[in-house]
Amino acid sequence: LKEFAASSNPKEQAILQKRLLVEEKATLQDLSAELQVSIERVRQIEERLKEKLKAFILEKMQRDHKEDIEV
């Protein structure tokens, strides 16, 4: 996840840390105020971030699987 977080922009990193990687999520309203964007924009960034994370994990799994086969 560190590699993924490093490739994310600051708003994505904040949402990742405060909405996706914790048990007690920050509210969309709180993040909206912190990031100075609308609640809807926070929601959109979060959805895009989930898709990017899914793609990152799938790519990593495929890469690891390919390395296992080559060994």
Order of helices and strands: HHHH
Radius of gyration: 15 Å
Low-pLDDT ranges: none
Indicate the percent of residues in helices: over 70%
> What is the global morphology?
elongated
Report the portion of residues in β strands: under 5%
**Cα distance, first to last residue?**
25 Å
* Broad structural category: mainly alpha
- Describe the sheet with the most strands: none
Describe this structure in words.
This protein is mainly α and 71 residues long. The chain contains 4 helices and no strands. The longest helix has 32 residues, at 39-70.
Question: What's the SSE blueprint?
Answer:
Layout lengths: L1 H5 L3 H11 L7 H8 L3 H32 L1
Helix pairs in contact: 2-4, 3-4
Question: What can be said about this structure in brief?
Answer:
The protein is 79% helix and 0% strand.
